[in-house]
Amino acid sequence: MKGEVYTVGIAFKFYFCKMLTPLNFPKTVLKLTKKGGDVFVWDEFRKRKLLLTPEEWVRQHVLHYLNEYCQVPLPLIASEYAIEVNGMLRRCDGVVFDRQGKAVAIVECKAPKVKLNEAVLHQIAQYNFKLKVSWLILTNGLNTIVAHVNQSTGEILYRSEIPSFEVMESIDI
């Protein structure tokens, strides 16, 4: 029942070439296993193995980027964070919390083939009505949209890159 970590068989390599699009995030070390015809990734944030889908590939990269490059402490990143929106249970792909436990950023991930369009913006905006964060991060791994939301005025400023944890935590930017 035990899968092989980093299997190098021809079928496995073909799977990676076909399914896992190179992303515009730095490479990160992911613990991958193969069982039958499926590939699984160990999720450091949820502490369990997950089926590796194109969206999960993106989610793992952006969440590891937040930890490794933006200095967000691992315990302050929640993956698949459940919230209630309009009486329905929804899940944010990622939420970053400050050291006091207040949500400061929402991360929404899509598969690389999915365009970041108005529907995706509407989805993350709905989540933000509930969480009222200052940072919105939308990515399909190829394109990333970063927005700072002033919760007092409603003004949205688009940024060219994902901010550091220090910036996410600060009130004044």
Major sheet summary line: 6 strands, mixed
CATH 2nd-level architecture: Alpha-Beta Complex
Q: What is the count of structural domains? A: 1
Strand tally is 10
Overall structural class, as computed from helix and strand content, comes to alpha+beta
Read across the widest sheet, the strand sequence of neighbours is 5-6-7-8-9-10
**CATH fold label:** tt1808, chain A
Percent of residues in helices: 25-40%
Radius of gyration: 17 Å
Task: Tell me, briefly, the overall form.
Answer: globular
Distance between the termini: 50 Å
Q: What is the beta-strand fraction?
A: 25-35%
- Total helix count? 4
Average pLDDT across residues?
88
Topology pattern, helix = H, strand = E: EHEEEHEEEHEEEH
What is the CATH class designation? Alpha Beta
Q: Which stretches are poorly predicted, pLDDT < 50 over at least 5 residues?
A: 1-15
Structural overview:
Residues 54-163 form the Type I restriction enzyme R protein N-terminal domain. It comes from Brumimicrobium aurantiacum. Pfam families: HSDR_N_2. This is Type I restriction enzyme R protein N-terminal domain-containing protein. InterPro entries: HSDR_N (IPR029464). With 173 residues, the chain is an alpha+beta fold. The protein has one domain: tt1808, chain A, CATH 3.90.1570.30. Helices cover 25% and strands 33% of the residues. It has four helices and ten strands. It has helices spanning 10-19, 54-68, 118-131, 165-169; strands at residues 4-5, 32-35, 38-43, 48-51, 77-85, 88-97, 103-109, 135-139, 144-149, 156-159. The strands form two sheets. It has a six-stranded mixed sheet with strand order 5-6-7-8-9-10, sandwiched between helices. A four-stranded antiparallel sheet has the order 1-2-3-4, with no helix packed on it. Strand 5 and strand 6 (88-97) form a beta hairpin.
